[in-house]
Design brief:
By secondary structure, this protein is an alpha/beta fold. The protein has eleven helices and five strands.
Length: 213
């Protein structure tokens, strides 16, 4: 099974809602950071290898998945669009300012305070994210809002420049089903577009991993 959909959007751009939406539309299973959490014994080593700059076999990493969204996969978006030339690309987006507000309350402290995580599964993921996201995406400056937002904007511009328009959908979750379904050529479901994984949800999971729940 080859990836049919590639999602280069940063985490905290509605990626879990997009994961659920794609699954509902028949494009699941969809790879997301949650898949690394749930399958950490098999998935985490692939992404630790990426952090070390080693080559990985994308067919192996994404075996069984029809779609990919969120980090860690979005870190490898250029390699994925080359490896899967027939896949459609959905860039999940929001304003840089609102993205950073969410990121700074969720992913940033998860990475920064990783030594406080009691759950070894979460701690391993946080260590990987420190290399893949803080160092690999933000040059170790994820706590600098101006720098992080500039990286966010530059990333989106790079995706738009690299992917042909007929292969790319720039998608804000607030748009709901219509543009997503039109892009994928499927019917619009008769129920609201999923809105999940709020900052409060993320913070609750992190507190549990620190033994604070």
């Amino acid at each position: 099974m080859a990836l049919e959909i590639i999602g280069p959007g940063f985490g905290r751009t509605g990626t879990n809602s997009l994961r659920l939406a794609l699954t509902q539309l028949g494009f699941g299973p969809c790879h997301h950071m949650f898949e690394v959490r749930e399958n950490h014994e098999t998935q985490l080593p692939y992404w630790e290898a990426v952090v070390r700059g080693e080559s990985v076999d994308w067919e192996t990493v994404f075996r069984g998945y029809r779609a990919q969204v969120d980090w860690p996969g979005s870190r490898a978006w250029r390699a994925l669009i080359a490896a899967y030339p027939k896949a459609k690309v959905i860039l999940s987006t929001r304003s840089a300012e609102s993205w950073y507000r969410s990121f700074s309350k969720t992913i940033l402290p998860f990475i920064r305070d990783r030594d406080a995580l009691d759950d070894p599964r979460y701690r391993g993921i946080a260590e990987m994210c420190a290399g893949l996201i803080d160092e690999g995406v933000f040059d170790g400056r994820m706590e600098d809002p101006a720098h992080a937002m500039a990286v966010f904007d530059a990333h989106e511009a790079a995706v738009k420049a690299a992917v042909p328009e007929d292969r790319l959908l720039v998608f804000d979750a607030r748009q709901g089903w219509a543009p997503l379904c039109a892009f994928l050529g499927v019917a619009v479901p008769d129920e609201p577009y999923p809105m999940t994984n709020t900052s409060q949800d993320f913070q609750a999971r992190t507190a549990a991993a620190r033994g604070q729940a």
